[in-house]
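step=predict obj=CYTH domain-containing protein n=219
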Amino acid sequence: MFLRLKGRFRKTTQHISRQLVTFSRVFLHFDFRSFEYISNLTVTSREMPSNVEIKAKVKDFETFKRKAKEISDSEGEIIEQKDVFFNVPQGRLKLRFLQNEPSQLIFYQRDDRSGPKVSEFYTATTDKPDELADVLSRAVGEKGVVKKKRLLYLVGQTRVHCDEVEGLGCFMELEVVMKENQSAMEGEQIARDLMSKLGVEEADLIKEAYIDLLSTKTA
């Protein structure tokens, strides 16, 4: 009986170890044992989900917020966010500090182009973001920090973000949360339809992430 239990325990620990190594290779390309003292880092998405996103500079922020409020039929939700980005060989890796809920480690990949684009991502949660940020900074180096005040509206399956980004100004971002078996083309059409309703013009679209805009500004 003891031997059978011992064998099962060994198989279970080996399985968990393989999952953690796979997770670390996707995110950081270094040994996940660096996180031994942060025992509550929890992977929340193993299959890579995706969004279709549009980002644009907003000239008249108050008018845009009014339209978003009317279309969503809601007052929106105010969210204060701080994203710390880290150096990785591909995609982007950020630790998002959130208020009143666990912080998130997010790895995502998307094309740097204006207009609708698919963003694929993994997430993990932690209630020790400062310790995790310290480990990541030592392991791969910090790229920069983005601070923003976000007003969130929900329109169907789309998250409408009205962002006031510290050091950059006012922007809007649409995130169409893709459903299972939904095509990228369908997601892009949803984004473009909502973009039109909100009065966003092609000339206002931007391809860069906020961290890249800040890096260019301070270079």
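step=describe
Residues 2-27 form the longest helix (26 residues).
step=end
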